[in-house]
Amino acid sequence: MQQEPTIILSGTDPDLPRKVAPGIGRYSGLREIARGGNGVLKAGFDPVTGRTVAIKMLHVENRGVPNDRRRLLREARVTAQLQHPNTVPVYDIGNDLVHGVYFVMKRISGENLFEVLKQIARGNRDIAQAFPAARRVDALADACKALAYAHARGVIHRDVKPENIWLGNFGEVYLLDWGTAKVWGSMDDQTITRYDATRLRKAEEEQLQTLTGGGQRPGTPLYMSPEQIQGVRSIDERSDIFSAGVCLYELLAIREPFRGANIDETFRNIIHADVPPPSEKSPDRGIPPAADKVVMRAIQKDPSKRYQTMRELIDAITSFVPQLDQG
């Protein structure tokens, strides 16, 4: 588990540097702290503010790929504009001559929810005691607050999963990775003409093709909604509600509801298969009926049968949290 950096005099008392290098050259002591499919996350020290920051950039081999560059820039800008307690603050966005597009954000400590679930599934009692069901579900509810805020701003996340929910050492919860987000804009604005709406829809389709490489679907297979898998263009916040419901199922049962032997089977399960409620999937975990009811409504195949807003799902989740860990 990553620890919070210590505040020391060298970060508070020195005068401002006489010269500040442009781009990533501003930051010293760069070291890699995480690596993903196309990007790398590095920690560095900012001599101007005196704080340790996290810097996300593309792998060397991906820096010249337009789709990857655009996705990282989109993630940076969406994250920067969603200023909410459950999103990570963005300090700077730039285009370095050597490292390409990057963005600088708060360096967070703690662990992601996926790692917590993995350790619990492996029988780690210390982790299970540190992260009981109520704490895990509370963390999801906090992440859902970021989603509710994003939805109000016209943004659909499209990749809600435990790996993107970060648990801080001091109770913080952050929803990460807005790289596949769908941005609606202000379609309810009365000043938007029919031409504007058509143009925005066309731009959205072009944007989806660019960001996902054509036929690829944005999202992570285990947590995707049926409409995402089927390539529905007009997905809305109810898609995120489905993904959050899948997360909720896993947080309670410590098992994924739709996992198949391969991606195709997983997709078939999501679209067609009826799954048992989490209490039947994991009868030894003391999951209350109220939790089953919330989960099963959230993962309905038909979006009209789910919770219709993230706020409704949050209220439903918080209503059964006091019933958890009673066994």
Order of helices and strands: EEEHEEEHHHEEEEHHHHHHH
Strand order of the largest sheet: 1-2-3-5-4
The CATH superfamily of the largest domain is known as Transferase(Phosphotransferase) domain 1
Gyration radius, to the nearest Å? 21 Å
Corresponding CATH architecture of the largest domain: Orthogonal Bundle
Protein name: Serine/threonine protein kinase
Domain Protein kinase: 27-321
GO molecular function: ATP binding; protein serine/threonine kinase activity
Keywords: ATP-binding, Kinase, Nucleotide-binding, Serine/threonine-protein kinase, Transferase
Task: Describe it.
One of its GO terms (molecular function) is ATP binding. Residues 27-321 form the Protein kinase domain. This is Serine/threonine protein kinase. Keywords: ATP-binding, Kinase, Nucleotide-binding, Serine/threonine-protein kinase, Transferase. InterPro entries: Kinase-like_dom_sf, Prot_kinase_dom. By secondary structure, the protein is an alpha+beta fold. It has 2 domains: 9-106, Phosphorylase Kinase, domain 1 (2-Layer Sandwich), CATH 3.30.200.20; 111-323, Orthogonal Bundle (Transferase(Phosphotransferase), domain 1), CATH 1.10.510. It contains 11 helices and 10 strands. The chain has helices spanning 66-81, 113-121, 125-130, 133-152, 194-212, 226-229, 237-253, 263-272, 278-281, 289-298, 310-320; strands at 28-35, 39-46, 51-58, 90-96, 100-106, 111-112, 155-156, 165-167, 173-175, 182-183. The strands form 3 sheets. It has a 5-stranded antiparallel beta sheet, with helices on one face. It has a 3-stranded antiparallel beta sheet with strand order 6-8-9. A hairpin with a 3-residue loop joins β4 and β5. The longest helix has 20 residues, at 133-152. The chain is globular, with a radius of gyration of 21 Å. The model is unreliable at 186-218 (pLDDT under 50).
